[in-house]
Amino acid sequence: MFRLPVSGIDVDLRxxxxxxxxxxxxxxxxxxxxxxxxxxxxxxxxxGGALNARDLTVxxxxxxxxxxxxxxxxxxxxxxxxCPSAGCGAAxxxxxxxxxxxxxxxxxxxxxxxxxxxxxxxxxLTGSEVQFRLVTAGDLAAAMQSANPERELARRTIRSxxxxxxxxxxxxxxxxxxxxxxxxxxxxxxxxxxCGATARFWFDVQSFVQREMRYSAEFLxxxxxxxxxxxxxxxxxxxxxxxxxxxxxxxxxxxxxxxN
Length: 260
Prior knowledge:
11 helices, 3 domains, 4-stranded antiparallel β-sheet, 47% helix, single chain, alpha+beta, 18% strand
């Protein structure tokens, strides 16, 4: 069971199979659409109901994607960057526990906003006509297809009565949104082992996790070939196997055939 940090929905995640590997390798290229597809295939509400991935806030989606990564690839997230200091450029290793990182981003009600009683999910800035709701995964996926993603997100999530009011309230709305749904994507810090400088890197949760998962899925085609050749299983049957079980069968098949 995993509880989404903003909505509080309890979800159940089934083990990833070759179908999810195939989605990563051959599906949509934009990160928002891939995350939606993965969650729709792997996650269900704990009560058995369907989970509408497009309606999840971006924070809930990032938390869920990070949890998928933790279960599939382990607790530790590791990456490497380069020191930006002039004349240095040394490698900087960055690592952290996925669970600890996610727990640092907790939702809280901002002091400058209040929920609308007659419209669940909508809020109003105190002393203002401006109303807003949180950005969802579906909003983000649609905005990435538009010519101006930032403007499209504002159009979808902010009601102000006029462009002028929207522009004046934009910063206040952004602060309120970040309080209600603090994004997991953001800057992470590392310290250069050579010169001691502090370096900051942008951590985009969905892109980073999908890149890792896509790399680990690249063996899918080899796995299908090995198991189909050894056991004469159909592609559908092989793709339906949980990834960990498929890998065990492949290891057994290779061991018995001498690794060829």
